[in-house]
Fold this sequence. Notes:
Low-confidence stretches: none
Largest sheet: 8 strands, parallel
Helix content: 25-40%
Number of helices: 12
CATH architecture of the largest domain: Alpha-Beta Barrel
CATH superfamily of the largest domain: Alanine racemase
Strand content: 15-25%
Radius of gyration: 24 Å
Distance between the termini: 14 Å
Shape: elongated
Number of domains: 2
Amino acid sequence: MQKANETVLEINLDALGNNYRYLTSKLKKETKVLTVVKAFGYGSDSVAVANELATLGADYFAVAYSSEGETLRNAGVKTPILVFHTLQTHFDTIINRCLEPNLYSKKILKDFITVAEKHQQTAYPIHLKFNTGLNRLGFIKEDISFIAEELSKTKSVKVKSVFSHLVASNDKNEAEFTKKQIEDFRNISEELIEKIGYKPLLHMVNTSGIINYPEAQFDMVRAGIGLYGFANDKEENKNLQPVAILKTIISQIHNISPGESVGYNRGFIAKEATKTATLPIGHADGISRAYGNGKGWVSIHGKKAFILGNVCMDMIMVDVTHIDCDEGDEVIVFGDNPTANELSATINSIPYELLTSISQRIKRVVLEKAK
C-alpha cells in the first residue's frame, strides 16, 4: 500500500478475493452466487469490483437501478445483472442493455410484459420477488394464480429466479421469525413452480443468512456487505477483510490555548493546551455532521485522534495532543483501524451507510493485487 498524499479511497481486490472465498466456502458446491455491486460497489468502484468478482466466479451481479447496470455494461461486463428496483420508465433501457428486472407487483409485471412484447422478445429473463415479512417490495402468496395466468398468455418473458428478502438474518433473537420466513418462501416457491410448470432459481439469503442459515441456500445466495469486509457479527468479521480504506493527510497543525475554540459555532472549546490537526475531508465527502464533539476518531501513526468540534463541509479537525505527527502525515479515516464498523458505531450507524456515503469526488485507487 502506498502512502497517501491526498484524500483517497483505496480498493483492495485481494481483500475482496479473501471475502468471496470465505463466504463461498460455506456453500454447497452446486449453489450459485449472486454478488451485490449496487451503490458504486458499496461506495468503492463497481466496475473494478465486478470485474474481479467475475474472475473469481460470480454467477450473477445485482444492482439497485438500471443506471448502475448500464455502467457495468458500458465497461464491458457480460455477467447477468439483476436490477432489484425496477422502475417502469427504465423498461426500454433494461431490455436494450440486457439487464434482468425484478418484478414485484401485478402492475409492474403486466407493464413489463407489454414492453417485452413491443420489443418482440421471447423468454426474456425476469425475476419475481415475494414479500415474506420485510414489507418493502414483493408479491404475496395470493398473487400466484394471477402471475401464472399472466405468464401463460405470453411467450415474451420467462421466470429466471424467484426470491425473497430476510428481515433479521443477523439477529439470533429473531431466529423464529426468520425460520418462518424461510418456510413461507419454500411454500410459495413450490406452489408457483407447480402452476407455471417449470423451476426457476430460488434464492433468499444474504451475507448473514449464508452464515446463520445454511439450510436456506436454495439454488443461489446473495452476497453483499460480506464481500466488502463486514458480516454483522464480531467473530465472523475476523474472517473478513475491509476492501475500502479511506485515507487522508494532515493539512495543518494548530496549537490551541485554553479557552480558544475550534471550528464553526465554537463547537470545541479547549480546557487545556491542545494540539489539533486539520484534515481535508468533511461532510461533503461522507463524514457526517453526526461526528465531531468527541464522536468518532481517525488513526494517525496507529493512535486515536478524536474529531473535535463540528464537521465542516470540506474539513475536520482532530485532537493530536498526544501524537507525534507533522503536516503531510498520513491519516487513516477507516480501514483496519478504525474499521468502518467501529467508526460508524460511534454515531449509532452501520458500515453500510458510511461506505456508501463516501463522495464520488474522492479519488478511488485500485491497489495492485499481490502476485
